[in-house]
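User: Sequence recovery, please. Input:
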């Protein structure tokens, strides 16, 4: 069974624009998964992680036959291929791939929570998500358009196409 999923991409080490563009291409190479759309790239200030360089963010829409767990495992493997290290929570990163939505499912398992926690509070997720899926709703939270209104004070700047 094919499921529509959304993946958040972010980077703030190395050459973040190049990393995010390459990661979008890599999503199209995941097994049993097709890249359907990718948002523009956005620059955003770090949220809740202290002093760090700005992030480059995007959101991609895929259609996959992988389970949510299998898709997450593929995303973690892709992060590792891109040189992601995890010295501490919230540390700067070469690449961050987050499973934001997996169909309309709500999952809470060890290491896997969907919808992604706090995505509904973050403009760096909601703005690119709204660009490629303006009518999507986040289960138990509401429509992207409504949630985005609550994030208007967060700094985010469109910088380019994927």
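Assistant: Recovered sequence (162 residues):
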């Amino acid at each position: 069974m094919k499921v529509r999923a959304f993946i958040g991409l972010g980077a703030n080490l190395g050459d973040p624009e190049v990393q995010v563009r390459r990661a979008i291409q890599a999503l199209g190479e995941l097994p049993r998964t097709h890249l359907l759309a990718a948002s523009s790239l956005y620059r955003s200030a770090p949220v809740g992680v202290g002093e760090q360089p700005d992030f480059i963010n995007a959101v991609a829409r895929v259609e996959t036959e992988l389970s949510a767990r299998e898709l997450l495992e593929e995303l973690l493997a892709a992060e590792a291929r891109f040189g992601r290290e995890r010295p501490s929570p919230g540390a700067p990163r070469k690449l961050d791939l987050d499973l934001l939505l997996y169909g309309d499912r709500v999952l809470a398992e060890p290491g896997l929570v969907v919808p992604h926690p706090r995505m509904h509070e973050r403009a760096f997720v909601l703005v690119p998500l709204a660009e490629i899926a303006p009518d999507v709703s986040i289960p138990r939270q509401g429509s992207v358009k409504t949630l985005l209104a609550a994030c208007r004070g967060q700094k985010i700047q469109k910088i380019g196409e994927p």
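The first strand starts at residue 3 and ends at 11.
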